[in-house]
Fold this sequence. Notes:
Layout: E1 2-7, H1 10-17, E2 27-30, E3 37-40, H2 42-46, H3 55-64, E4 68-71, H4 74-89, E5 95-99, E6 102-106, H5 113-128, E7 132-137, H6 140-152, E8 159-161, H7 165-174, H8 185-193, H9 199-203, H10 207-225, E9 242-253, H11 256-276, E10 279-290, E11 306-315, H12 318-332, E12 339-351, H13 365-382
Parallel strand pairs: 2-4, 7-8
Antiparallel strand pairs: 1-6, 1-7, 2-3, 5-6, 9-12, 10-11, 10-12
Helix pairs in contact: 4-5, 11-12
The chain binds a DNA duplex through residues 30-36, 38, 52-57, 59, 72, 98-102, 181-187, 214-217, 240-248, 251, 291-293, 308, 341, 343, 345, 401.
Amino acid sequence: MLALVDCNNFYASCERVFDPKLKHRPVVVLSNNDGCIVARSQEAKALGLQMGEPYFKVKELLDRHKVAVFSSNYALYGDMSQRVMTVLQQFAPDVEIYSIDEAFLDLDGFRDLPELARTIRETVRQWTGLPVSVGIAPTKTLAKLANDTAKKNPGYNGVCVLDTPELWKPLLHEFEVGDVWGIGPQYKKLLNKHGINTALQFSQLPETWLRKHMSVVGARTAKELRGQPCLELELHADLKKGITVSRSFGKRITEFTELEQALASYVSRAGEKLRRENLLAKHMLVFMHTSPFAKDAAKDPYYAPSLSFAMPLHTNYTPELIHYALRALKEMYRPGYRYMKCGVMLTDLLPEGTETLDLFDRRDTVKQSKLMAAMDQVNQKMGTRTLFYAGAGIRQKWSMIAARKSPSYTTDWQGLIQVKAV
DNA sequence: TCTGGGGTCCTAGGACCC
DNA sequence: TCTGGGGTCCTAGGACCC
């Protein structure tokens, strides 16, 4: 048996932990650049606010209902996530951290699963302040479904155990096929067209049909709904395939030098990520684009070039990465466009020390990694951008908007919560 | 008029996830 | 004026090889 433990409205709940005044107030958290809504408290959902809804479109509604609005604070959410995972690891030896707010637990050999599920839920609540839901079933897909059921139906008190077909079959019959894990909007449309509306109907489709229309992935999902495990618990993350850093700008950019600064700082971030995981990259993709939402396409045309190339040698040395990225940028840049976003993707990754040595490699890689290590250390200790490349710009006029960010209560001394006796 | 077959590697695009 | 960011997996089709 597997458990899926999932934090309820994770980002919104994190904000609430440190500000009790928010307890019964609707809360929403915005994406980068305060662009759209990415998390909603229960009360905010009840107001009809949708996931992914652009902020500017619902601003008035938010004001009217006195909704508490936050820019996203990833330092806070990341730290709270770690706390939750640490608690979960006390309950089971094998835990797969699936995302920032959910984990699968291997419960083989455990007895009285409903009682265990309630204990997990209460302990996380008590030790971190965060509400979670627990779903238990023999496969990941069913555990997801159980979790979803526990979350959406108050009668379950946040816990749902589906350990026999007699328990899950009636639920499958009630469950919308589009809400099944692994079935997105496209497949939902296709399935509905063929008269498949419930998870139960889907789970009974013939293998050949599934393979033909939804590939092996769809066939696996159906099997999992029948209680046949196809997806293993992934206990050790395998080698990363790629690292991407991209951002929308706080305002449109037209100048080459500003693009250069933005790209250089994203590439620096990508370099940090590589080094943190002791990886080297060989391949680079640089991309940029103007707004796809432009009202007047004649005045504000869409332009979205990208350049993908192999670097001569594997590297994680930021100046080298910046060099190739800026060269690509220069090649793609056309004046007269209003750029909205750019980014870099590094692929062909290899753990440090496993790359083949090149006879003609003239780089002093020892010196380079010492320099990078020193820089990373300073930035980790003193805050990001304590040390940075001048090419990334000293005054970043294009940087992101985060007008409503809460303090980083748990990771920054300045953000430490203050309690006053009166 | 008929125009092989099978393998591998790469890329682009489409689907999904949080 | 204002629409996020970072991933994974699968398949089809083209290039190339023998």
